[in-house]
Specification:
Elements: E1 2-6, H1 10-22, E2 26-30, H2 33-42, E3 47-51, H3 59-67, E4 75-79, H4 84-92, E5 97-100, H5 105-119, E6 124-127, E7 130-133, E8 138-141, E9 144-146, H6 150-161, E10 166-168, H7 169-175, H8 186-199, E11 208-211, E12 215-218
Parallel strand pairs: 1-2, 1-3, 3-4, 4-5
Antiparallel strand pairs: 6-7, 7-8, 8-9, 10-12, 11-12
Helix pairs in contact: 2-3, 6-8
């Protein structure tokens, strides 16, 4: 797996490069925003670690520019900016994840592995009579297509990927909404109800069950 690091702090680059290479990843590093963007345009990377404040071109500008042509490659922001508004701005720019400095290498490594697992998943996910075609962004029940919003689709995929496991509301907000601060998790219930309605599932008998006070679990 080939990872691009765009970071102007030499110590952080050396720390990340050493640790990630020991884990078997191929690392390419850029010390300013313009160089990072040019590399991202020329080469195919499996994941990009992107600082926010960079010389010549900011991380936000790079992220937006990359997303105009590349909507697939995971982008993880590594930044000291930590306000709620800044976090939202980074995610709206197209980032998949957001890690605040200083951070634990073990945490970063686990986040990277999660994104790689998602990239390498089967093309079709199944839950009972439900089929989810990832690349085509299609959900079908017994061969009939069901229209879903992007967030509904992401939430359903998340539950099916974690089939048989209880997914807490807090974890869903972090992993699906990419929100890593205190947030009203009640919004998840609204989306679950919408998904059930579109899939025509009966609340007490469906394959997405509510674990009261905790979250949800998907089972065949």
């Amino acid at each position: 797996m080939n990872i691009l690091i765009v970071e102007d702090e030499v110590g952080i680059v050396q720390f990340l490069q050493q640790g990630l290479e020991e884990e078997g990843y191929k690392i390419t590093a850029a010390s300013d925003g313009l160089q990072g963007f040019e590399l991202a345009q020329k080469e195919n990377f499996d994941l990009i670690l992107l600082d926010w404040m960079l010389p010549k071109l900011t991380g936000i500008d790079i992220c937006k520019a990359i997303r105009l042509k590349n909507t697939i490659t995971p982008i993880i922001f590594l930044t000291a900016k930590d306000t709620v508004q800044e976090t939202i701005e980074g995610l709206k720019a197209g980032a998949n994840d957001y890690i605040k400095k200083p951070f634990s290498f073990d945490e970063l490594l686990e986040r990277i592995k999660i994104h790689f697992r998602n990239q390498n998943e089967p093309e079709i996910l199944r839950l009972g009579a439900i089929e989810i075609h990832i690349a085509k962004h299609i959900v079908a029940v017994k061969g009939n297509d069901v229209s879903m919003t992007q967030r509904e689709f992401e939430l359903l995929c998340y539950l099916v990927r974690n089939k048989g496991k209880v997914c807490t509301r807090t974890q869903i907000i972090k992993d699906v909404w990419n929100i890593h601060f205190e947030y009203d998790t009640g919004v998840i219930d609204v989306f679950i109800n919408a998904i059930r309605k579109k899939l025509k599932l009966k609340i007490e008998e469906d394959c997405i069950k509510t674990i009261r006070g905790v979250g949800y679990i998907a089972n065949d």
